[in-house]
From TrEMBL, chain A:
It is found in: Cell membrane. GO terms for cellular component: plasma membrane. The chain crosses the membrane at residues 12-37, 49-77, 89-113, 133-159, 188-210, 271-292. It is a multi-pass membrane protein. InterPro entries: ABC_transp_permease (IPR001851), BCAA_transport_permease (IPR052157). It comes from the Bacteria. The keyword Transit peptide does not apply. Belongs to the binding-protein-dependent transport system permease family. LivHM subfamily. GO terms for molecular function: transmembrane transporter activity. This is Branched-chain amino acid transport system permease protein.
UniProtKB/TrEMBL annotation, chain B:
Residues 587-609 are annotated as: Disordered. InterPro entries: AAA+_ATPase, ABC_AA/LPS_Transport, ABC_transp_permease, ABC_transporter-like_ATP-bd, ABC_transporter-like_CS, BCA_ABC_TP_C, LivM-like, P-loop_NTPase. This is Branched-chain amino acid transport system permease protein. The chain crosses the membrane at residues 37-54, 66-84, 104-126, 133-151, 171-188, 222-244, 256-282, 294-319. It comes from Salipiger thiooxidans. The lineage of its organism: Bacteria, Pseudomonadati, Pseudomonadota, Alphaproteobacteria, Rhodobacterales. Residues 357-589 form the ABC transporter domain. Its main location: membrane. SMART domains: AAA. GO terms for cellular component: plasma membrane.
Length: 297, 609
């Protein structure tokens, strides 16, 4: 039972990170139909900022703020430079553009920073663990869960109570009509990218605090998982992205914990097959996007 | 069966073969290094056209095709690996496999069969998803396959190198298979299945309405493309002699996709253009990667020069030419445009089966809104029935339910004795109900002729498809447009082309959703004559939605009036004009006794869900 609870904490922690990343993807996708492959590079940027701040001896809390800020700014710049020219193009065109952006950034990191993985200085508190309810939990896991909860509450408030957030939801349901209502396309898209950058930044801090290192391809794997989480939840659906992120986290952690040793090698394929089974039952994801219902003939 | 002109196709195929042969001759003259580069190019090109067969024709980008390449590579390599080598490196292989030692050619054939079986299973699953979700699902396929190959150590040596494969892929072997792949891809694009798939790429709903079973066509192209990928995988395995699962993962996926997309994924010309461009740029940049001198300056070694080069080409292509360097047409389609269609003698056959469409208690609810509420209608071949009502009264929703685009919340419909409930749109089209759309839904980058031909090919078992298509175009007076892209025409022409396309389905019943919208008086009058001809000469039944009450009144035998989702009146035009409920619905008051046709209800854009 203890083992199960322990694994559940791990699952919530990992699932939360996936959920934040998937949310960032979903915010952008729901508005402009772009699957942003360069989302992972936003994470990597935040990771490198953490690394440099650590080297410069800045307090960790300040480093976190700078890292998240850097990812947010980078996301807005990315939209302005690379995605605006292809804004009204097909999904495939945008996807491939984002993939090229991702490639350019990776090569820049390799040349300007290092090809190899770099250590990130973390406060010793993060690597500690505490005893709670009779079992041991890493501080980083607890903080990660707390950060996820705070971000989800913030996002819910932002999307429901803030003008920009409501505008984004309107744009996600029907961009053309939203623009006719006086919502500015540039600002709502820039806002969506800023939000996705913010979420990527927070996810990057959580990711790095578990691993204490950063490399040019750091963002690739988690964002790949986030893509799958976003589909699992329902592409373009924000609630779906959260649900998908957590479900994927649970699937991965429980498989790692309970799959017999001889099957462990097939853990990732088995996890994905489970995802596929869910999708076969619900082809539009766990919580389909509202835009699907507004589909016109 | 081919849908393109045989002469053009022969030219295209001969040119593709000539291109490969000339390239191979040049390279073999230049020495071993060039031969290697060209062999890799040929193998990559096979993979690029392989992905293109599915992604190009269906419009669904796939990241998963390298799994098929991997299956092809491992299966063929396991078959050709010398038995002694298997005993040494893969001791746990089952006995029958350990003893097998095939040549490259039979090994490729087996690899194709195994890969196709694998693709069939995967395709049935992926086929349930659409658009971006399907794309990400193929990404999942890539990860799953990679994971299984790494995990299945007894057969694949896991993440380690699979070595000792006989290097049997010579330049000419690669060239031969490359020609075969180009021919297959080019033939498929202009086959019946390929044309149907391209129509569904342009507009999935319209494709269904003219009888295209999109899922089936997607599955066919998916399996065919998997077969081509298997060849590419087998060849690269037997070219390198040693490979690891990494060879079939993200890096190569992106490189091949870059080739396909930079060139233009909808054509074979594009695949070749992209493969040549990326290969040339990669080869040039590779020489600069380790640093070089320009005059007095020394440029230092830069990691990933080729990667940056490829990325910049992609960005350039996406910003400047989003449909790819080669555009949307094959080269010979641009060069050898066909002459305008000759006068056709073909005529459309009259409707023989006169069974009626009966719909009872049709109801459609969208959340809390009841768009159509308990409406029952009957429609017989040979009559023209008008369906009118104020904006938002549920006319288009009713059409959508009757044609299978929407599944009614309640109600049943049948054509003669055949129940239509729950049938997909393409089955309903096959049964003889064709339609047009309020917001025109043509296949914009197919020619007018292809637009109509695909309808003919997808209904009535495809019999006399070409004759039906020509006759339909002639009847609507748009035969002269046959060779141009449908998307380039004026609103009125597009409406006529859409009606011709519906007519090519050889329907018993034809639903027209605001056919006269965007037409002037003369055009509307001409359209009226055409529609009369369809009922009088061919016996087709027409259900006509329009806001032009003059058109409705003078054309229709019966008129149905909807208001707020309910059928409030039905009868002959003269009765409808006097019906107080109709007058109230149109004018908002029952006091006036004006003819609703008189106030000149303006045709307005309507957007019923």
């Amino acid at each position: 039972m203890d083992f199960f609870l322990q694994q559940t904490v791990n699952a919530v922690s990992l699932g939360g990170t996936y959920a934040l990343l998937a949310l960032g993807l979903a915010v952008v996708f729901s508005i402009m139909g772009l699957i942003n492959f360069a989302h992972g590079e936003l994470m990597t940027i935040a990771g490198y900022v953490l690394m440099y701040c650590g080297l410069a001896g800045l307090p960790f809390v300040l480093s976190i703020g700078l890292a998240i800020g850097a990812a947010t700014v980078a996301a807005v710049l990315m939209e302005r430079i690379a995605f605006r020219p292809v804004r009204n193009a097909s999904g495939a065109t945008m996807l491939i553009t984002s993939f090229a952006v991702s490639m350019v950034l990776q090569v820049l990191f390799q040349n300007l920073i290092s090809v190899r993985s770099q250590p990130v200085l973390l406060p010793p508190l993060l690597t500690d663990s505490v005893r709670m309810f009779g079992f041991v939990i890493g501080v980083n896991k607890l903080l990660s869960i707390a950060a996820t909860v705070v971000m989800l509450i913030f996002l819910d408030w932002f999307m429901k109570r803030q003008k920009t957030g409501i505008a984004m939801r309107a744009a996600a349901e029907d961009f053309a009509v939203a623009r006719l209502m006086g919502i500015r396309a540039n600002s709502v898209i820039a806002g969506a990218f800023a939000l996705s950058g913010l979420l990527a930044g927070v996810a990057a801090v959580l990711w790095v605090s578990q691993r204490a290192s950063v490399d040019p391809l750091m963002g690739f794997t988690p964002v790949l998982k986030a893509f799958i989480a976003a589909i699992l939840g329902g592409l373009g659906s924000l609630r779906g992205a959260v649900a998908g992120g957590f479900l994927l986290g649970f699937i991965e952690i429980y498989l790692a914990a309970y799959l017999p040793p001889e099957w462990q090698e097939f853990r990732d394929p088995i996890g994905l097959v489970l995802v596929v089974i869910v999708l076969l039952i619900r082809p539009n994801g766990l919580i389909p996007a509202p835009a699907l219902k507004a589909h016109k003939v | 069966m081919l849908t393109a002109s045989p002469r053009n196709m022969a030219i295209a195929l001969a040119a593709a073969a000539a291109f490969v042969i000339v390239a191979a001759l040049v390279a073999s003259g230049l020495g071993a290094a060039s031969e290697r580069v060209l062999s890799v190019f040929f193998i990559s090109l096979i993979a690029v056209v392989g992905i293109g067969i599915y992604s190009g024709n269906s419009g669904v980008l796939s990241f998963g095709h390298l799994s098929f390449m991997a299956v092809g590579a491992y299966v063929s390599a396991l078959l050709t690996l010398p038995a002694a080598m298997k005993a040494a490196t893969l001791p746990k292989l089952p006995a029958w496999l350990a003893a097998t030692e095939l040549g490259l050619f039979p090994a490729i054939l087996v690899a194709i069969v195994v890969t196709c079986a694998f693709a069939l299973v995967v395709g049935l699953a992926v086929g349930r998803l659409d658009g971006s979700a399907a794309t990400i699902a193929t990404l999942g396929l890539l990860i799953i396959t990679h994971g299984v190959i790494i995990g299945w150590r007894d057969v694949t040596r896991g993440s380690g190198t699979f070595f000792g494969v006989p290097r049997e892929t010579s330049l000419w072997v690669a060239a031969g298979w490359c020609i075969a792949a180009l021919v297959v891809a080019r033939l498929y694009r202009d086959s019946v299945s390929g044309l149907r798939l391209r129509a569904s790429r342009e507009n999935a709903i319209a494709a269904g309405a003219v009888g295209v079973d999109m899922k089936r066509e997607r599955l066919i192209s998916w399996i065919l493309s998997a077969a081509v990928m298997a060849v590419s995988g087998a060849l690269i395995a037997h070219f390198l002699g040693a490979f690891s699962p990494k060879k079939f993962y993200f890096v190569d996926t992106f490189q091949l996709l870059a080739m396909l997309i930079v060139g233009g994924m909808t054509t074979v010309t594009g695949a070749v253009t992209g493969a040549v461009t990326i290969t040339v740029v990669t080869e040039v940049l590779r020489r600069f990667e380790s640093g070089f001198d320009i005059g007095a300056f020394t440029v230092p070694q830069v990691f990933g020069t080729t990667q940056i080069g490829i990325a910049l080409i992609i960005l350039f292509a996406m910003f400047r030419k989003a449909e790819g360097l080669a555009g949307l047409k094959e080269w010979e389609e641009r060069v050898f445009t066909r002459r305008g269609a000759e006068k056709t003698a073909a005529t459309l056959p009259a409707v023989s089966d006169r069974s009626a469409l009966t719909a009872e208690h049709m109801t459609m609810r969208f959340g809390g809104l009841t768009a159509v509420n308990d409406v029952s209608v009957t429609l017989r071949p040979g009559e023209i029935v008008g369906l009118i009502g104020p904006n938002g009264s549920g006319k288009t929703t009713l059409l959508n339910m009757l044609s299978g685009v929407l599944e009614p919340t309640e109600g049943t419909s049948r054509l003669g004795e055949t129940k239509l409930d729950g049938l997909p749109t393409h089955r309903i089209a096959e049964l003889g109900i064709a339609r047009t759309f309020q917001n025109i839904r043509l296949f914009p980058s197919l020619t007018v002729e292809q637009n109509v031909l695909v309808a003919g090919l997808s209904t009535g078992s495809g019999e006399d498809a070409r004759a039906r298509a020509e006759a339909a175009l002639a009847r609507l007076g748009v035969a002269g447009h046959a060779d141009k892209d449908a998307g380039t025409f004026s609103y009125g022409d597009q409406r006529r082309i859409e009606i011709a396309r519906a007519l090519a389905c050889q329907p018993k019943l034809l639903f027209l959703d605001e056919p006269a919208a965007g037409m002037n008086r003369e055009e509307t009058d001409a359209l009226m004559e055409t529609l009369r001809g369809l009922t009088r000469e061919l016996g087709i039944g027409i259900l006509l939605v329009d806001h032009d009450l003059k058109l409705i009144n003078s054309l229709c035998d019966r008129i149905l009036v909807l208001n707020e989702g309910r059928l409030i009146a039905s009868g002959a035009p003269a009765e409808i004009r006097r019906d107080p409920a109709v007058i109230e619905a149109y004018l908002g008051t029952s006091q006036t006794q004006d003819d609703p046709a008189e106030p000149g209800h303006q045709p307005t854009e309507e957007n019923d869900p």
